[in-house]
Amino acid sequence: MERVDREAFYRDPYPVYARARATSGLTFSGELDAWLVTRHADVREVLSRPADFSSQGAFRGDVTPSRRAFAELAAAPGNAPVVLSSDGEAHQRYRRPLTRGLSAAKVAAARPFIQATAAELVRSFAAEGRVEWMGGYARPLPATVIGHLLGLDPADVPAAVRAGDRAENLIFTAMPEDEQIAAAREVAALRHRLVAHAARARDQENLTGELVRGLAPGPGEPTGRQRDEIVSNTQNLMLAGHLTTTALLGTAVHHLLRDRRQWELLCARPELIPAAIEEAARFEAPVQGFRRRVTRPLTLSGTELGEGDTVFVSFASAGRDETVFTEPDVFDIAREPARHLSFGHGVHGCPGALLAREQLRVTLELLVRELPGIRLAGDDVTMAATLIHRAPEELVLTW
User: Fold this and answer.
1) Which residue segments constitute the domains of the chain, with CATH numbers given?
2) Which residues, including other chains, have CB under 8 Å from residue 30's CB and lie 6 or more apart?
3) The dihedral of CA 100, 103, 109, 113: what is its sign?
4) Following DSSP, what letter does each residue of 72-139 receive, concatenated?
5) Are 197 and 209 within 8 A, CB to CB?
6) In this structure, how many other beta carbons lie within 10 angstroms of the beta carbon of residue 226?
7) Strand partners, 228
8) Is the separation of the CB atoms in 19 and 4 below 8 Å?
9) Distance, CA of 114 to CA of 100 (rounded, Å)
């Protein structure tokens, strides 16, 4: 593949994906140091074969923190594998508490809290006639919701979310060493707070309690290893639980308002909200994709891969596959539903997909009812330069 500027690729990867889908076999990306898996059928196949395509290293950063920053993290609890990058029995063990804690029944039970939180956020800016959507709503709603589900004290949620963001900054944003160290210290402080929170949560009916009971079963205090697993997976859940939904809230509202006909159709026919949610996820996958490591020599889409090779499985490209979706580059909430892969597939399918959908559902119901005149303040919307959680950097709305 022709080498392109990494930042430009990250801000708009779709032309690269389109060329890769049109090319026979797989395409190697120097920007990602991985083979691109871009066609819907190939993405589904890789996700269906976890034994051949390991999740170890699924979440690889763009930068390497300094040794001093690493030392700050190494001294804190929580340096253990997480569900996202585990395989086999370990993955199943990490995932079971999440499956229980994010079940359809648990998400339904959380709906009144989501509705109340969403309504309060909208009330806080409705009289202003203007809001920067990402900071005013798309970030605080899912952060508050995941904090609630984890059983965190609401007063602790903002600092915990900030520390989660700093953890992502450490591996995706180039920073001076002193800033890296400061970020690492924030993350380490969060981990210590999560240890204390987990110690109180064993008998509580929340996500943290599910993680404690699932990863440290039986009486007595968790072992050091169990404590690290609880902290790592709680921190990972906190990060994934709000950033993925933040991205979906940002891109869904952006695309609904970019074509005024789509928004007016939704206002006229709110029964299309479930279809709008699926179209938003298909059109702009909130997580662009993850890496997989090849575990044995094999052939995928005519390309020979060796043990240890890396593939980047693009959920976003699968959603634009011309062989599956008619006019895939057109955002259309009235299109005939088709199964997308934007929340993954198979054993590693996103356990929080129902929660993300519910928060977008509540949001669209609220906006259609309370702010039908909402519109974009301008056409210049810059997407964040990342292939992880794809969202506008800012999204200014008026009404």
Assistant:
1) 6-398 (1.10.630.10)
2) 1, 3
3) positive
4) HHHTSS--S--GGG--HHHHHHHHHHHHHHTSHHHHHHHHHHHHHHHHHHHHHHHTTTEEEHIIIIIT
5) no
6) 17
7) none
8) no
9) 19
Please report, in tens digits, the pLDDT of each residue of the chain (399 residues total): 455 678 888 899 999 999 999 999 999 999 899 999 999 999 999 999 999 999 998 878 888 999 999 999 999 999 999 999 999 999 999 999 999 999 999 999 999 999 999 999 999 999 999 999 999 999 999 999 999 999 999 999 988 888 888 888 898 888 999 999 999 999 999 999 999 999 999 999 999 999 999 999 988 899 999 999 999 999 999 988 888 999 999 999 999 999 999 999 999 999 999 999 999 999 999 999 999 999 999 999 999 999 999 999 999 999 999 999 999 999 999 998 778 999 999 999 999 999 999 999 999 999 999 999 999 998 889 998 887 788 999 999 999
DSSP character string of 45-78: HHHH-TTTEE-TTSS--SS---HHHHHHHHTSS-
CA distance 215 to 391: 33
CB 68 within 8 Å of CB 345: no
Alpha carbons 53 and 305: distance in angstroms, whole number: 11
Q: Please state, in angstroms and rounded to a whole number, the distance separating the CA atoms of residues 239 and 161.
A: 7
- Note whether 145 and 244 are within 8 A (CB): no
Cross-strand bridge partners of residue 299: 304
Q: In the chain, at which residue ranges do the beta strands (DSSP E only) sit?
A: 27-29, 34-37, 53-54, 130-132, 289-294, 298-300, 303-305, 310-314, 375-376, 396-398
Instruction: Please report, as a single letter, which amino acid is at residue 251.
Output: T
Phi-psi region of 389 (alpha: psi -120 to 50; beta: other; left: phi over 0): beta
CB 155 within 8 A of CB 147: no
Q: Please give the model's pTM, rounded to 2 decimal places.
A: 0.95
- Distance CA(293)–CA(361), nearest Å, equals 35
Measured between alpha carbons, how far is 182 from 196 in angstroms, rounded to an integer?
Answer: 22
Residue 36: CB partners within 8 Å, gap ≥ 6?
Answer: 1, 16, 17, 20, 26, 27, 28, 29, 311, 312, 314, 317
Helix, strand, coil content of the chain in percent (nearest 5): 55, 10, 35
Q: Dihedral sign for Cα 366, 369, 371, 372, please.
A: positive
